[in-house]
Every structure is written in structure tokens, then in C-alpha cells.
DUF2483 family protein
Amino acid sequence: MAKETITYIISKDNLWVTNRPSKSVPTIKYSTSKSDARKFDGLEDLSIDLTNHRIFKLTHIEIDEEEEIKLE
């Protein structure tokens, strides 16, 4: 059975969002490195105006395979 995990990363002008801004701390922080991008588990509770941002969906699929082997 495969386990699927979906996350999202957000960019603007080749910069990657590295934090989750909130009402108390509304500053969006960016990095030039994609590996620094923060993975979001959903987009509905974001306080980021996505008008000028690009969203990338990441799908990770974990598959367990079972195989019987015969020893000779």
C-alpha cells in the first residue's frame, strides 16, 4: 500500500518563502536556495498574498513492496 504526502512550497521572483507569516509577525522571509523553502501542508490558512507568488505542489509517495524469495 502506498502512502502519499502532499506539501507545497512558494516562490516569488526566484526567491523561496522560508517562514509562515502570521498576524502577529507578518514579515515574509525569503531565500535564494530552494532547499531552504518551507514546506506547507495546506494553503487555506496562509496569510501570504499569493497574487505575485508561484505555488509548487510536492507529492511524496512511499511504497512498501513485498516479495517472496527462495533460497537455493
